[in-house]
Write a structure and sequence with these properties.
Layout (H helix, E strand, L loop, with lengths): L1 H11 L8 E11 L8 E5 L4 E3 L7 H14 L3 E6 L16 E9 L8 H9 L6 E9 L11 E4 L11 H17 L3 E6 L5 E9 L4 E5 L5 H11 L2 E5 L7 H6 L2 E3 L13 E5 L4 H12 L5 E4 L3 H13 L6 H4 L2 E2 L11 H16 L19
Amino acid sequence: MKEIKAIIKAYDELDRSLTRAAIATVVRVEGSSYRRTGARMLVLDNGQWIGGISGGCLEGDALKRARLAINNSRPTLITYDTSEDDPHQIGVGLGCNGIIDVLFCPLDFNDSSNILEVLKSCIVSNRETHTLITVTTINCDFGEVNPGQLIQYKGPQSLALFRNTDLEKSLEQALKQQIVDKKSDSLSIKTADGKSLAVFIEILPPEIHVVLMGHQYDVYPMCRLLKEIGWRVSIVAELIKVNTKIAALADQIIAPSAFPEMLIDEHTAIILMSHDYKTDKLNLPKALRTAAPFIGMLGPKIRSEKIWKELAEDGQSITESEMERIYAPLGLDIGAQTPEEIALSLAAGIRAAFAQRDGSFLKYRTSPIHPRS
């Protein structure tokens, strides 16, 4: 999400009378690659670019491909194959052993539904998860649909522009499954009459939202790291108690009395870090009443267990399902000592939980880091 926001910002600031641009999107990955599907790169005809589609190895060639797409005024799909030992292949020698399809689309600034305008409408919406369909290749006429088009799926009616009932049914079925799986993927569809097209179905969730319930000095390095990652940060504290440096970093500061009215969804992590025992004890039941799937507590485990015990004695026992949402002590075991290292441990723990990973060393992982096509 951070990359998309940076691309949109650059796009909005362009002098459109002097500059032309194209957007490059990774639409299919087979095997291993540094970036996954959905990675994007805005390329300007003056040679500048924002974002990236690899670790730097493909960007030089991508610049040339994007300029060609701009000059030809039509999208092109390029395959980079780093799995073969071919000295003439871009990216060989990287050891990635993957095949990457990148779609290069020139941007029509006069088209209110160009790729970046569609993405912009997703960014400004109220923390929704969006389903996007990028048409990568097409072998015939499908109504109003063209290669390179980005379609925002809002239900079966969004597919009517294909004007092909068989294709719409097949695509609808695939979309429903990917929405359930919360997984982006590429897809090829062939109809009974021999027509075919390939699409990239992207599930685009909002950025992770971290709610920090506290105002002490260690909130500052935590805020800096989370904003660098590209997450949304809210602080629950009285404004008068929040350091101005911290206030400048946070997306919002909410008074404790207004916490029940906060928008907290399934992409939100709440961190109890007031460093005051009574305050954390008071805040834990409030956090559990929200939809947040992740609630972290700073401090040693014995401190958290004491809070749980006292809450139970007060008639506020924590259920088994609620306990699954609580991470205490919070963070990964990396030997963190300084506030900055602790922030790293906490952020890594949040990322691991949302990715449903255990946060262990990759050297011990027996399966691929990312799902393989």
